[in-house]
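Dear Dr. H.,

I hope your travels went smoothly. While you were away I took the liberty of generating a structure for the chain from your last submission, since the lab meeting agenda had it listed for discussion. I wanted you to have the full record in hand beforehand rather than looking at slides cold. The sequence, exactly as received, is reproduced here:
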Amino acid sequence: MKSFIFTTLFFIFFQISAQDNFNCFTVLAGKYATDDESVMLAHNEDDGGKQTVNLYKVPRVENKDSIEIKMKNGGTLRLSPTTFAMVWIEMPGMEFSDSYQNEYGVTIVSDACRSREDQPDLTDGGIGYWLRRAIALQAKTAREAVKIGGKLIEKYGYASSGRTYSIADKNEAWMLAAVNGKHWVAQRVPDDKVAIIPNYYTIGKVDLKDTLNFYGSNDLIDYARKRHWYEGDDAGFNFRLAYADTVSLKHPVNIERHWDAINRLADTKYAITDTLPFSFYSKDLIKLPDLFRVLRSHFEGTDLDKSKDYTLGSPHETHRAICAQSTQYGFVTQLRDYVPVVLTPIWISFVHPCSHTFVPLYNGIGSFSNDLHTFSGYQEALQHHFDKHRQKPDRKHFFYTFTKDARKIDKKYASRIKKRKQRIAKQEKALLNNQKESEQKLFSKYKINPNILGEELQEYFDYLINNQLK
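The corresponding predicted structure, in token form, is as follows:
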């Protein structure tokens, strides 16, 4: 009986810890680190339990006056009169799980990063859910997004232990690290390098005088000294060592995923005991399939693969890797400054990226079909976002179909994934080989009549989703 109780408590603790500490994984690649000179952002969204993923297109809205929003924790947020159109990947009921790409290509995702802050300064309950949404609705560039986010954190205080927001546009990629309360820091990813973020802070040494590459709270270092988290001079200050939860920094789940991704991409091999860098040079110019492979990684080919090449079962059940049981979707966006933003693709794979094809969801899509979301429109979805009962599975919903398929593969992973990988490889090869020609045709139509593009992109995405599992 005692053994049963201990096992049950351990399982509950592990599940809670996994949801609090190990949610999500992101890769950022600067434009000179990729083969097509695009800024790339790759992300796996991880959230435990039974979830739903909805897709909405939020239109551009122009008002005479600023918009007043009542936030979840009670505070009032004012948005600019004009808010931008955006693709909204929603997970109803979740406060920190939605992803956005707006009409300027500004893309924002996040990864939980626990801080050591235990005396947070919050105003009106602080800001949580609305931070990334406010950024996506108002920012024309990633740099502007960081500034908007920093001001909101300083005004309201961040209402969670800590988080790193990865933000990218067609020119730059940034990480914005928020600490519980009113402290934050942001660092630009060098244009010729790649950066990885698991679930601990990776921003290290900070130079707030270098405003090309850093922004942050004015009292970031002084406050760390006040709390006895740091005692040196400004030049030696290391944000992650000062502000991060120490258990998070040392946890193998974070270190292993970080190490695995770097060694799959970097021009230098690192030992798992090494201090891993904020950013690094890649061994070759990054291509889309390189990032697909990272998001699908279960540590194959390393000693960390506890499934022993799937012979001991599904890797989602034997160990916690980058592609995990809790992964709800993965995507790689390809942000290019030489094509219209409407032709920016979000290459998305639902549930486990290892089990499903990455297909292009284009920024200029006009709307999404009814089986791709729970509510009829984005306003109703926002109104009911935190209704927990709305997370019941819907057999007519596309995500239910993909979830059911992923679970089926997991039951006999070794035998079923081999055939699925062959199908995925064939589908992705065709999509990538045809990308340039397809986009040229779409661009020609766009120049003649921009309004027709949204409908064509909707039909194309519907086709890709409906035929992927046939």
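Two observations you may find useful: The two ends are 47 Å apart (CA to CA). Confidence is low (pLDDT under 50) at residues 1-20.

With kind regards,
E. W.
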